[in-house]
Amino acid sequence: MSATRQAEDGARPARRRLSVDRRREELIAAALELFGRHDAEDVSIDDVAASAGASRALVYHYFGGKQELYVAALRSAAAELRARLQPQGEGGPLEQLSSGLTRYFDFVEEHAAGYAALLRGGPANRAGEIGEIVDEVRQRMLRMVVHQMGVDAPGPALRVTLRSWIASVETAGLDWLEHRDMERAELERLLVDQMVALLRAASGHDPGMRVLLETLLPVHAAPENAAPENAAPANAAPANCEAVP
C-alpha cells in the first residue's frame, strides 16, 4: 500500500475475531468504500485488507482476487438497491413515482460509496458481468415505473422515455452526492417534474402516449399555457367589479 493511500485512508485497524459472514460483509463494505472513492484500477487487495483490518491472505481466501471482490461488492450494492425498488402499489402514479424516488435516494444517501461504486467506479468498458449487474438495477427500476403506470408492455416511445429518465435519475444521484447543494426533497420533486415533461414530449411522437398521459396525469396533461376550464377571458373585469371604460 502506498504512503499516500495510507495517509488518505488512515491507519490499519486492529483485527477482531468475526464470524465468516460478518468478516465477508466487512471486506465488501471496505471494498465498496474504496471503489466508491477511487478508480478500481487504483485499489489493491492490500488496500482493502488494510481498510478492513484483515490480512491480504484472508481477502484472497474469501474472494480469490480483486476482480472477484469487485464483482461481489457491486452485487451487494445492487441487491440492496433492487430491494428498495420493489413496487409498493400505494397512491396514484405520481405518488408511487415519488415514493419510489424517496426509497431510491434513501439508498443513495445511506450507501453513498456503494452507489458511486456501482454507477461510476470500474473500467470504462462495463460489458460482461459488471455491466449485467448495473443493467439488472436499471431493469428493476424500469419494471417498477411501468408497473406504476399500469402498462403491460411499453412501446418504443415510452420505453426510450423511461430509460432516458432513469439515466437522469442516476446522474442526479451522483451529482447530489458530489455537491449536495440542493435539498433532497426538492431534487426528488424536480425528477418527478422531469418525468412529466418527458411524457408530454413523447406524446407528440406517439398518439397512444397522449392517451396514456391523460390517463396517468390528467392535471399535468393539459398544455402548460392552456387556460383553465371556465376561466374568464384575459380582458374580462374581475367578478363583482365594474369594467373600467
Helix and strand string, N-terminal first? HHHHHHHHHHHH
Main beta-sheet strand count, sense and barrel state: none
Regions with little confidence, pLDDT below 50 for 5+ residues: 1-8, 220-245
The total of beta strands comes to: 0
By oligomeric state, this entry counts as single chain
The CA-CA distance between the termini, in Å, is 85 Å
Shape summary:
elongated
* Proportion of residues in helical segments: 55-70%
Taken as a percent bin, the fraction of beta residues is under 5%
Kindly provide the radius of gyration, computed on alpha-carbon positions and rounded to a whole number of angstroms: 24 Å
Count of helical stretches:
12
Average pLDDT level: 82
- The assigned structural class equals mainly alpha
Explain what the structure shows.
This protein has helices spanning 3-9, 20-37, 45-52, 56-63, 66-84, 93-110, 112-119, 128-149, 156-179, 184-203, 207-216, 218-221. By secondary structure, the chain is mainly α.
